[in-house]
Design a protein that fits this description.
mainly beta, disordered N terminus, single chain
Amino acid sequence: MTAGSKFHQITSLTGVRHEYSYGYRGRDARSNLSVLPSGELVYFVATFVVVYDRLLDKQRHYTEHNEEVTWL
């Protein structure tokens, strides 16, 4: 992820805000979980890439994909 990547909370057209992703795509994908030097976990769920801080129990979401993410 580059410094210019867009991480934010997702608000749908109905006004519902996406705050947390549960689970991840692991059944038919490879390279689906990585650990950053910061200790954060990076994985994908559908069209989102999730960066999870285990110490703070917080997530950031990269939401610029138009199709399902299948590889990191």
